Amino acid sequence: MKYLILLGDGMADYPVEELGGKTPLEAARKPNMDFLSRRGKLGLARTLFEGMPTGSDVANMCVLGYDPRKYYSGRSPIEALGLGVHIAEDDMVFRLNLVSLSVPEDNFLKSVMLDYSADKITTSEAEELLHALNAQIPEPRLYLGVSYRHVALWKGIEQMKPLTPPHDFHGKEIGPYMPDNLKLAQYTRQCHEILKDHPVNLLRGSKGLKPANGVWLWGEGRRAAFDSFYERHGLRGSVVTAVPLITGLAVGMGLGVNNVDGATGDIGTNFRGKAEAALTALRNGDDFVFLHIEAPDECGHEGNALEKTRSIELIDELTLGPLLEGLDKLGEPYRLMLMPDHATPVSLRTHTPDLIPFVIFDSRTAGCKGNASDKTPDNGAPFTEACAKETGVVENGYDLIERLFIK
Ligand SMILES: [Zn+2]
Q: How far is the CA of 143 from the centre of ligand 1 (A)?
């Protein structure tokens, strides 16, 4: 028996005028997802909880079966795990975004957050900039991640007022969101001074790209501690992902990591390569694979409804399609759960704690795409937020994985 979770990050949404009043899931042409839904068990689940950040860290930890209220210690300790960074007891860990700011001459606090991703800076450009910062400022130590997502380790720094993710104040002045900790505020200012005239940014300027002329620290926390996934479920598992956050959860839980060339964490990712990596892991003996695709969330943060719909269609055609074909060829029965981790409505450009739709599909009762079994009649419900509303709610989303792992 094989088990899979296919997760489209931030895939859920609200009706969008530009899509004729439909949500991206409703507007998308997605025959494979709808097949699973029509022959599977559809439902709604809660993956984000009162008083906790509405982030992918909390939601994906929950989908993997760990109660965030028990295991969550901040976002960046998880990302640091994914980058293989050793975290000491007295280290405070931060997510460090390279960002684009428009900075007035006279008052840094009146700077505006132009782009939380520094115009999707490349990892190699980021490497040069992080090198310059590490060379000139001894603390914090910076560790390279992917594109604009990096990690900072700061020894012996005190707790502070929760920091705000930069994608939450896009287009606004940074003053109200500056850290209340003086050391952090000074560091943010100092980094701008070092980066603003860096050759990487001068070159980006000449190409019409926004400069990575600032940093933003957020997602702070201390070392994370998870009990082993294998000990919990007796199943050997691994993940397929492009983002350090999910890699970090996997490392912390003792799950394997399957790397995919060309996995970018946005709509340009290698959708088909991800399906192949998952199938290879199952062929090589894994019982369970968690396949994470970041693209819909990025489109949600950019407020782009058409691109988000397109990203769902690409997941359906290039990832889920080949995955179902490969699973049928594998010749073993399987259970597959399809879901987002949370909603990232294009109208709001950030995450919301809404209940999310999920479907659990069992090949033993539903058969396969080309040859649907009549053991499970077609319930006529495509995979959408509205159809899922017709069914029950799983209040503790971290119980879902137990439902998936039913023998
Ligand atoms: Zn997410």
A: 22
